[in-house]
Amino acid sequence: MSALFRCRALGRTFGAGAAAVTAVAEATCRIEPGDRIAVSGASGSGKSTLLHLIAGLETPTSGEAEWPGLGGDPRRPPGAVAMVFQAPSLLPALDVTENVSLPLLLCGHEPAEARKRAIAALELLGLDELAGRLPEEISGGQAQRVVIARAIATRPVLLLADEPTGQLDTGTAAAVLDVLLAAAAHLDAALVVATHDEDVAARLGTRWHMRDGHLRTGWAAPC
Question: What GO MF annotations does this protein's record show (predicted)?
Answer without folding.
Answer: ATP binding; ATP hydrolysis activity; transmembrane transporter activity
